[in-house]
Amino acid sequence: AERAGVSVRSVFQHFDDLETLFALVAEQAVAGLGNGMRPIDPALPLAERVARFTAQRARLMEAVTPIRRAANVHAPFSPAIQDRVAAGHELFRAELETVFGTELERAGDRRGAVVDMLDVAAGWSSWEVLRTLDGRTVDQATDVVAGLMRAALAPLDAP
Length: 159
Description:
The protein is mostly helical. Helix content is about 70%, strand content about 0%. It is elongated. The N and C termini lie far apart (about 55 Å).
């Protein structure tokens, strides 16, 4: 409303309900984030993939933090927001499985557990703790995430 120079009430006249507004806002926010994701070659050495992945994930986490904070406030009451958060989470998990697929294949029946470890290490909740509660800089938080990921993947680095 502020950017358009109109009242908040005017904005709401264009939407049937809050769910419609939330869905549109979520779609707009997610559309802008897609530009920050670049494919990472799974054939690169593990150390290089971890470095590229965590650098890219740090940029995404910084961009998504204001959106996720707002989503956390409204999500309990909004199926549209819950769906968007779940879809984003699945997208981020799928990226992990693509980038670290070679190592995950070696994990055998522990694959799910290793994906969960990587997901927790590189997920938004961990990022929020590191940046907000622990007061880490972006570089410090990125180093922590990279260290956790290397620890989870190190046993799977060689056949």
